[in-house]
User: Which sequence fits this backbone?
């Protein structure tokens, strides 16, 4: 997860099994603590491992999206950039 967002403070994983009718459903909830607003991911499956993998994939997408949004916000808030050309490319 650190590859997708470096400022992760803590990840809380909650696994819960509930019975719906005749089916057992596994819920996997990830609460990812990061500076600012925490990321929350929930997935369900009939298999523990599958629920965990689905939640991890969703968390990767969510953290990658947040990282991209933060980077674009930083670019917008930076002062206007000046493009410097080599002297031989300047037209007089």
Assistant:
């Amino acid at each position: 997860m650190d590859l997708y967002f470096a400022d992760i403070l803590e990840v809380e994983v909650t696994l819960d099994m509930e019975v719906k009718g005749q089916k057992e459903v596994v819920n996997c909830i990830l609460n990812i603590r990061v500076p600012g607003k925490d990321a929350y991911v929930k997935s369900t499956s009939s298999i523990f491992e599958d629920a965990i993998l689905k939640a991890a994939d969703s968390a990767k997408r969510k953290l990658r999206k947040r990282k991209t949004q933060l980077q674009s916000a930083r670019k917008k808030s930076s002062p206007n950039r000046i493009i410097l050309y080599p002297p031989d490319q300047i037209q007089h």
User: Anything to note?
Assistant: Residues 1-64 form a domain with the Double Stranded RNA Binding Domain fold (CATH 3.30.160.100). The chain is about 35% helix and 30% strand.
